[in-house]
Amino acid sequence: MAGVVRSLSRCLLPAEAGGRGEARREAKERGRDAEREARRRSRDIDAMLARERRAVRRLVKILLLGAGESGKSTFLKQMRIIHGREFDQKALLDFRATIYENVLKGCRVLVDARDKLGIPWQYTENEKHGMFLMAFENKAGMPVEPAMFQLYVPALSALWRDSGIKEAFSRRSEYQLIPAAQTVADLCFTWLHS
């Protein structure tokens, strides 16, 4: 019986060994493919890291210190504009709210200064527009929405055409007006009349 088992195992052994050999070759080939893929991914990752390293080397970091309202944010925005970096949609919407608020505050200062400097209104109906604008009160930290700003556009337009407001603006050295008032006024005037 032992002889029969031995001869059967000899007959079957080469066939099984051949099957195992094929399976081993396929496993080795799969291993080589996986290794090639891993090397390719590694090269891609190395290239990406090299690009990021070059970008980080060109990156300039600045620590800006200063009191509130000293121009830190304005400096950064100017650098962005000078070097041609685009603002994303959220930043543009934030700027819009800031511009609206600056226009309203600046015009309020002009109406108040006109009154304190004793400058008469060119058109008496502008007194109502001035009172309407002086009643504007924005809750701290809340952006001025376009719909809210639109309520003030007729008053702003009428006030900016009044010679009393223009005279108050020309005498701005006698009181404190936001530094960008001329630009804001020009933008507002252009926008209101376009």
TrEMBL record:
InterPro entries: Gprotein_alpha_12/13 (IPR000469), Gprotein_alpha_su (IPR001019), GproteinA_insert (IPR011025), P-loop_NTPase (IPR027417). GO terms for molecular function: D5 dopamine receptor binding; G-protein beta/gamma-subunit complex binding; GTP binding; GTPase activity; metal ion binding. Coiled coil: none annotated. GTP binds at E69, S70, G71, K72, S73, T74. One of its GO terms (biological process) is Rho protein signal transduction. Residues 19-38 have a biased composition (Basic and acidic residues). Keywords: GTP-binding, Magnesium, Metal-binding, Nucleotide-binding, Transducer. Residues 16-38 are annotated as: Disordered. Mg(2+) binds at S73. This is Guanine nucleotide-binding protein subunit alpha-12 isoform B. The gene is GNA12.
